[in-house]
């Protein structure tokens, strides 16, 4: 049984539909990568999963529960966390304040414990605990954004373009951190521009095109497809 599943999602903005019967599922223990050109519906699917937009039809199921019409806050408390590509930290706040904000819905005791656990996963953040987020590098900001997601103690984290705008060294750091988060038991779903690196750490991958599923398969099979190589891997 899937931990998270989007079934036949039709959704968009106003009268413009972006998703046309989109399907995606992720099982416990998995890392999933979603690829596709701009406008293919990747981020729109994440917004539908989080409740930022309501599908015209189709359903979202999490942990055997239909969550299609419950508020975003309720989805977060059930265990779904989302790290958007941009505006994913509070620049004027310190690292510590950002982490505390992420745990605002918890009791003070639980929040403090969750913050300490997140810092334990990212020693760099503990070293810079009193540094404002505006003073962090791009890779450090992305690390903070992922740590903020962990403070919520999710079962699954949705990552939208975690390496966007980062240099190769910072990108590799982010992917190592994603692997570390997964190793501690959190399911990961990634929308990513670095297709090869994302597929290398994933169990399965999806290719979206014009709001529909083009491919779905084990990553080792996707990495061997000539079309995938030419379109996403630079081969």
Structure, described:
With 235 residues, the protein is of the alpha/beta class. The protein contains ten helices and ten strands. The strands form two sheets. It has a six-stranded mixed sheet, sandwiched between helices. Helix 4 packs across helix 6.
Give keywords.
10 helices; alpha/beta; 26% strand; 4-stranded antiparallel β-sheet; globular; 235 residues; single chain
Helix/strand layout:
Layout: E1 4-13, E2 16-26, E3 31-35, H1 42-50, E4 57-62, E5 65-66, H2 72-78, E6 80-83, H3 95-102, H4 108-121, H5 123-127, H6 138-151, E7 156-160, H7 168-183, E8 187-191, H8 195-200, E9 204-209, E10 212-218, H9 219-222, H10 226-233
Parallel strand pairs: 3-8, 3-9, 6-7, 7-8
Antiparallel strand pairs: 1-2, 1-4, 4-5, 9-10
Helix pairs in contact: 3-6, 4-6, 6-7
Average pLDDT reading = 93
Low-confidence stretches: none
Question: Helix segment count?
Answer: 10
Identify the overall geometry.
Answer: globular
Brief summary:
This protein has about 240 residues and is α/β, with parallel strands linked by helices.
